[in-house]
Amino acid sequence: MKRRIILLLLLLAGCSRSIPSTGPAISFDEASGVITINPAVDSKRRVGYGFPLGSVTVETLGHKEGVLLFEYTHEVEGGYTVYLCRVPVTEPLVTIRLPKGGDTEPETSFDLEDCELVRRGSVFFD
Questions:
Q1: I need a surface site. Which of 9, 85, 91, 106 has the fewest CB within 10 A?
Q2: What is the pLDDT of residues 30-75, one digit of tens each?
Q3: CB–CB of 95/46 below 8 Å?
Q4: Whole-model pTM over 0.70
Protein backbone atom coordinates (compact mmCIF):
# COMPACT_ATOMS: atom_id res chain seq x y z
CA MET A 1 0.00 0.00 0.00
CA LYS A 2 2.82 2.42 0.88
CA ARG A 3 4.43 1.68 -2.44
CA ARG A 4 1.24 2.67 -4.33
CA ILE A 5 0.91 5.93 -2.40
CA ILE A 6 4.52 6.84 -3.10
CA LEU A 7 4.07 5.98 -6.78
CA LEU A 8 0.93 8.11 -6.96
CA LEU A 9 2.69 11.06 -5.32
CA LEU A 10 5.59 10.78 -7.75
CA LEU A 11 3.22 10.72 -10.70
CA LEU A 12 1.33 13.76 -9.46
CA ALA A 13 4.57 15.64 -8.81
CA GLY A 14 5.64 14.98 -12.40
CA CYS A 15 2.42 16.52 -13.73
CA SER A 16 3.03 19.92 -12.16
CA ARG A 17 4.18 22.85 -14.26
CA SER A 18 7.90 23.54 -14.10
CA ILE A 19 7.45 27.21 -15.00
CA PRO A 20 6.01 29.34 -12.22
CA SER A 21 2.99 31.28 -13.42
CA THR A 22 2.64 33.49 -10.39
CA GLY A 23 2.39 37.24 -10.54
CA PRO A 24 0.51 39.51 -12.90
CA ALA A 25 0.50 39.02 -16.66
CA ILE A 26 1.33 42.72 -17.15
CA SER A 27 2.63 45.24 -14.65
CA PHE A 28 3.76 48.87 -14.86
CA ASP A 29 6.39 50.59 -12.75
CA GLU A 30 5.45 54.26 -12.90
CA ALA A 31 8.75 55.44 -11.38
CA SER A 32 10.87 53.84 -14.11
CA GLY A 33 8.25 53.93 -16.88
CA VAL A 34 8.63 50.21 -17.60
CA ILE A 35 5.85 47.84 -18.67
CA THR A 36 6.65 44.21 -17.80
CA ILE A 37 4.98 41.18 -19.39
CA ASN A 38 5.32 37.74 -17.77
CA PRO A 39 5.26 35.13 -20.60
CA ALA A 40 4.58 32.30 -18.11
CA VAL A 41 1.17 33.74 -17.13
CA ASP A 42 -1.66 32.58 -19.39
CA SER A 43 -4.00 35.54 -19.19
CA LYS A 44 -5.90 37.96 -21.40
CA ARG A 45 -5.29 41.52 -20.32
CA ARG A 46 -5.05 44.93 -21.98
CA VAL A 47 -3.22 47.96 -20.63
CA GLY A 48 -2.24 51.28 -22.15
CA TYR A 49 0.07 54.05 -21.01
CA GLY A 50 0.71 57.48 -22.43
CA PHE A 51 3.88 59.49 -22.78
CA PRO A 52 4.26 63.14 -23.90
CA LEU A 53 3.95 62.51 -27.66
CA GLY A 54 2.02 59.24 -27.84
CA SER A 55 1.10 55.98 -26.16
CA VAL A 56 1.81 52.26 -25.90
CA THR A 57 -0.89 49.58 -25.56
CA VAL A 58 -0.17 45.94 -24.78
CA GLU A 59 -2.81 43.20 -24.95
CA THR A 60 -1.91 39.67 -23.91
CA LEU A 61 -3.92 37.11 -25.88
CA GLY A 62 -2.92 33.98 -23.94
CA HIS A 63 -0.80 30.91 -24.60
CA LYS A 64 -0.80 28.94 -27.84
CA GLU A 65 1.58 26.09 -28.67
CA GLY A 66 4.16 27.04 -26.02
CA VAL A 67 4.25 30.78 -26.72
CA LEU A 68 2.56 33.84 -25.28
CA LEU A 69 0.79 35.88 -27.94
CA PHE A 70 0.46 39.61 -27.38
CA GLU A 71 -0.40 42.68 -29.44
CA TYR A 72 1.89 45.67 -29.10
CA THR A 73 0.54 49.03 -30.32
CA HIS A 74 2.78 52.07 -30.59
CA GLU A 75 1.10 55.43 -31.29
CA VAL A 76 2.87 58.74 -31.94
CA GLU A 77 0.91 61.94 -32.63
CA GLY A 78 -2.05 59.99 -34.02
CA GLY A 79 -0.18 57.52 -36.23
CA TYR A 80 -0.16 53.97 -34.90
CA THR A 81 1.33 50.57 -35.68
CA VAL A 82 0.03 47.27 -34.30
CA TYR A 83 2.27 44.20 -34.03
CA LEU A 84 1.46 40.60 -33.09
CA CYS A 85 4.35 39.23 -31.05
CA ARG A 86 5.18 35.72 -29.88
CA VAL A 87 7.41 34.95 -26.91
CA PRO A 88 8.14 31.42 -25.63
CA VAL A 89 6.55 30.88 -22.22
CA THR A 90 9.98 29.82 -20.94
CA GLU A 91 11.56 33.20 -21.77
CA PRO A 92 12.35 35.77 -19.07
CA LEU A 93 10.13 38.80 -18.50
CA VAL A 94 9.47 41.04 -21.51
CA THR A 95 9.98 44.77 -20.92
CA ILE A 96 8.91 47.95 -22.68
CA ARG A 97 10.48 51.20 -21.45
CA LEU A 98 8.34 54.23 -22.28
CA PRO A 99 10.16 57.17 -23.85
CA LYS A 100 10.87 60.26 -21.76
CA GLY A 101 11.05 63.89 -22.73
CA GLY A 102 10.74 64.41 -26.48
CA ASP A 103 11.67 60.85 -27.45
CA THR A 104 9.03 58.88 -29.34
CA GLU A 105 10.45 55.34 -29.53
CA PRO A 106 9.94 52.95 -26.60
CA GLU A 107 12.80 50.54 -25.83
CA THR A 108 11.69 46.90 -26.01
CA SER A 109 13.46 43.76 -24.81
CA PHE A 110 12.13 42.00 -27.92
CA ASP A 111 12.94 42.67 -31.56
CA LEU A 112 10.00 44.16 -33.48
CA GLU A 113 11.43 42.54 -36.63
CA ASP A 114 10.42 39.19 -35.10
CA CYS A 115 6.81 40.39 -34.65
CA GLU A 116 4.13 40.32 -37.33
CA LEU A 117 2.90 43.70 -38.61
CA VAL A 118 -0.89 43.63 -38.19
CA ARG A 119 -1.85 47.13 -39.36
CA ARG A 120 -0.88 50.80 -39.52
CA GLY A 121 -3.14 53.78 -39.47
CA SER A 122 -4.09 57.15 -38.07
CA VAL A 123 -6.52 57.82 -35.26
CA PHE A 124 -7.62 60.88 -37.26
CA PHE A 125 -8.42 59.13 -40.56
CA ASP A 126 -9.54 55.59 -39.61
A1: 9
A2: 999 999 999 999 999 999 999 989 999 999 999 999 999 999 999 9
A3: no
A4: yes
Cα-to-chain-centroid distance, residue 85: 8
Count of CB atoms within 10 A of residue 88's CB? Answer: 11
Contacts of 95 (CB under 8 A, 6+ apart): 34, 35, 36, 37, 108, 109
Say if residue 87 is exposed, middle or buried (CB neighbours under 10 Å; 0-12, 13-18, 19+): buried
In whole angstroms, give the CA distance from residue 93 to residue 71.
16
Task: Kindly report each contact of residues 17-26 with a partner whose C-beta sits within 8 Å and lies 24 or more positions away, as own/partner.
Answer: 19/89, 19/90, 25/60, 26/58, 26/60
Distance (Å, rounded) from C-alpha 80 to C-alpha 82?
7
